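user: At home tonight, take the chain set out below, taking as long as you need, and be ready to discuss the fold:
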Amino acid sequence: TDPLQFPCVCVCVTPAPQGGAVALLRPVAAMGKRVAVVLAGCGVFDGSEIHEASAALVHLSRGGAEVKIFAPNIEQRDVVNHLKGSPTDEKRNVLVESARLARGNIQDLAELKVSEFDAVIFPGGFGVAKNLCSWAVDGKNCTVNEHVNSTLQAFHKAKKPIGLCCISPVLAAKVFPGCEVTVEGNRWTSAIAELGCKHICKDVSESHVDKANKIVTTCAFMCKAPLHQIFDGVGTMVEEVLKLA
């Protein structure tokens, strides 16, 4: 059985003396992997996709990981009325909005130290393509937020795994030319190729592992699939990240 899917607490049992009533149970704690999760706001159209972020956190919890959540302390590119799907005149902060998903337990991405973590994961959502980079506006000529870029570069240099889902693989495609990612089916092949990377077609329930770069990607909501399949697909990404960590 895969211990990442079914974590357990080891218990040492000391046999009771003959005639004794109970045995002594001593819990033995297992060291979990330390994983940073980077958010881009709160909401699919201008921040992190809530279901993907939640799925990643649930699977990390199930895998026994120790998680800390981060977001850049910057203004959002725009604020979208999610009922109407149209932009508004509001101004919102990415860190403040991400705190909604993190239940307030979040840190500025500028404070992240790669030495304190074994892996990093970026859930999707259009906030990734608007706030963490400018791909939604500039396409192949996009720029990546300085703290996002330095975080990715630091984990890559330390040979620590990077997990990305939905649209967030464009971050890896921009920062690491030549890497392999999946962002769903064939319609994204040219967009990824424009960034100098190889697109691997995968089903929603699968993830792709670029072993050379320790980059794990899954398409999530880029596929039009039922929520439970997206949840499971994110789970395969998390599982592979933890294996590499």
Q: What stands out?
A: The helical segments are 50-62, 94-101, 126-132, 135-138, 146-157, 169-175, 189-194, 227-244. The chain is about 30% helix and 20% strand.
